[in-house]
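Structure (tokenized):
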């Protein structure tokens, strides 16, 4: 006997988009989520990414950042292959709370800390720290806190985009391209050690192997390619060690077994739980995209208006009406500003006094510090405040001064509460992307012959102490709210005369 179904029986409803999404292989679902995070990160931080690409092409130290995600990927693959230890439990309230806290920190850095540390933008790259927080917080919201914690070593590697420790390492290693390559190898060695670290012994020997391969490549580059760009020194040894040693450790670990990179089950969260957080991630990305990168006047390189011959260690010609007094001092600053770079200090005294500059018409004395660098980007990376260790002084905002011949200077006031003196300084930079000179002129409100002028650091320790101090204090704490520019007229006139003297027929 045949049973006929009722004609009015309802058909099964068509599956929803989310149901279809969860019907595909988990790998594709992960790709969709990471693809969403990648797109939103690019949208929120497109200014930072473009800026980083531009300065990397200009042969800057910041090029090391591109090595960090490569090392992080190696660590992520290694951790993904290990046995899962966390329980498949997801507290969405905790995930959202932690995600909101991370997003809040990212917004705080972009909106508050980045302007506060504007002078040290290239040195700190806090915008990349905000990017790291955004990606990590997005992962917490879209994947859950437990999976993110499982990959804690990956997030630790990605935190190395914070540039200050890297720059300190380069300075400590002596500065220059070889030192930059060696500092990048520290990142590669740590990444390989973590990737191979199923035991401390394996991790230790993995790091040693990575450093051995990397330093061998770095030595070859130094000997056979001495004129290679900075990015070659930074990336070629590090990437070679990551690929070679990482592949070797993978093959050794998979002896006698299939050589599949990922062979574990992927278990994403439930649909409603995950996708409910997408509007939050999108909103934060839109907010972050509205913050501009800070303008850093100390990094501007002005093109030379004429054939002014720059050379390492060269002094400046005193302008008419001024005479170089005392001995010209040369202080090595190669750790900061490249090979053979020196700071040339000149003391220049006016031939006659001017009652506008001194009430008793005493001839005024100014100090000129000049540095020629074959790596002009370093003049912006390490501003004058780093060189002079002015972490306890109160410094005003820049005032722009027209020095003629297309040169614009930056005038500022410095109050040293320890020495109880006030300095005014005028700074300008000229040259091109291959060779540039920074000139800083100081005038002190104490007009006596033994008046104290700012002293540049001549050893490594004060420079490192200054960098660490700046990390915790920033700009705003030490700003002058009501600056006094007592010597603005003196420095403006002297600066114009100095520029004209360098561009004159005698040069």
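Design, position by position:
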């Amino acid at each position: 006997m045949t049973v006929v179904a009722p004609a009015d029986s309802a058909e099964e409803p068509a599956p929803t988009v989310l149901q279809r999404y969860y019907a595909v292989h988990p790998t594709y679902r992960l790709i969709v989520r990471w693809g969403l995070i990648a797109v939103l990160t690019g949208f929120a931080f497109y200014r930072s990414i473009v800026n980083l690409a531009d300065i990397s092409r200009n042969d800057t130290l910041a090029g090391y950042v591109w090595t960090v995600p490569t090392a992080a990927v190696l660590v992520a693959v290694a951790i993904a292959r290990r046995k899962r230890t966390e329980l498949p439990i997801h507290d969405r309230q905790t995930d959202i709370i932690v995600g909101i806290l991370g997003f809040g920190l990212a917004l705080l850095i972009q909106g508050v800390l980045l302007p506060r540390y504007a002078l040290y933008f290239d040195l700190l790259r806090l915008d990349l720290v905000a990017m790291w927080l955004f990606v990590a917080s997005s992962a917490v919201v879209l994947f859950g806190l437990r999976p993110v914690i499982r990959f804690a070593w990956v997030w630790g590697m990605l935190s190395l985009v914070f540039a200050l420790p890297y720059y300190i390492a380069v300075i400590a290693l002596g500065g220059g391209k070889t030192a930059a390559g060696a500092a990048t190898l520290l990142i590669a060695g740590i990444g390989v050690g973590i990737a191979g670290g199923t035991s401390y012994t394996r991790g230790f020997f993995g790091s040693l192997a990575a450093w051995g391969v990397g330093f061998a490549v770095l030595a070859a580059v130094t000997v056979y390619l001495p004129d290679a760009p900075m990015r070659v020194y930074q990336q070629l040894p590090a990437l070679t060690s990551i690929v070679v040693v990482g592949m070797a450790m993978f093959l050794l670990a998979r002896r006698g077994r299939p050589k599949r990179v990922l062979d574990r089950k992927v278990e994403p969260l439930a649909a409603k739980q995950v996708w409910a957080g997408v509007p939050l991630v999108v909103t934060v990305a839109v907010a972050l995209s509205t913050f501009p990168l800070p303008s850093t006047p100390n990094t501007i390189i002005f093109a030379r208006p004429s054939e002014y011959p720059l050379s390492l260690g060269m002094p400046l010609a005193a302008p008419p009406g001024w005479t170089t007094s005392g001995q010209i001092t040369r202080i090595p600053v190669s750790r900061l500003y490249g090979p053979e770079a020196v700071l040339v200090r000149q003391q220049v005294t006016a031939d006659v006094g001017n009652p506008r500059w001194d009430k008793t018409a005493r001839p005024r004395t100014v100090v000129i510090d000049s540095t020629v660098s074959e790596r002009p980007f370093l003049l912006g990376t390490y501003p004058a405040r780093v060189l002079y260790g002015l972490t306890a002084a109160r410094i005003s905002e820049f005032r722009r001064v027209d020095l003629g011949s297309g040169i614009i200077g930056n005038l500022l006031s410095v109050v040293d509460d320890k020495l109880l003196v006030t300095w005014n300084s005028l700074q300008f930079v000229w040259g091109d992307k291959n060779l540039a000179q920074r000139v800083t002129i100081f005038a002190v409100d104490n007009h006596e012959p033994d008046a104290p002028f700012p002293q540049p650091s001549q050893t490594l320790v004060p420079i490192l102490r200054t960098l660490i101090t700046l990390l915790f204090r920033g700009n705003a704490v030490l700003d002058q709210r009501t600056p006094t520019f007592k010597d603005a007229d003196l420095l403006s006139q002297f600066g114009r005369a100095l520029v004209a003297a360098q561009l004159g027929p005698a040069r």
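Reviewer-requested clarification: The chain is about 50% helix and 15% strand. Strands lie at 322-332, 342-350, 365-373, 394-395, 399-402, 408-416, 421-431, 436-444.
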